[in-house]
Amino acid sequence: MTPKYQSKPGIVSRNEWGAKPANSSGTTRTSTGKIVIHHCATDNATVDNLSESELMRIHQINHLNRPNYSDIAYHFAIGKNGTIFEGRREAARSYASNSNATAFDQDAIHIMIMGNYDERTMTSTQSKKLEDLIAWLCYKYNIDLNIKGHRDNPSSSSNHCPGSFNYAAIPSIIVTIAERVYGILIS
Fold this sequence. Notes:
By secondary structure, the protein is α/β, with parallel strands linked by helices. Helix content is 34%, strand content 11%. It contains six helices and five strands.
């Protein structure tokens, strides 16, 4: 399948949200074949009371303080207001030390959506921005509709991520991306 051109959506850079430098550049992916959706699962009251940039800094610091992480684990994030944020170096594998990386992660771009989506659904703005980002990534990397939830990783201990509401939305996201990027109608 040849993807149709998709423009790059507006993305807030690491510098703009105040990212700390990564502890290392991590290992570069040798291929890109899937997109994995996550949620931060942070209490929604906390998400609602902090700015999107503050939440990015909190997640990065949390990951930097974990063994085997050299930066925030996600390549991109979607904020509570639909803002798209740059996460770790786009070409890097997730979990930069690779001791956490699994075969499932090796060719994946990871997108985190701020909030707990076992408790609420994405807003229409978040959904639209997620679709814009995924469409651009599918175009850029020629990803063939391989869009997964974190819980699809057979090695993952997370059986809730990306939240039940987001996980249930993945089939409709695939339908939208199939038509938008590849001109395929799926019913």
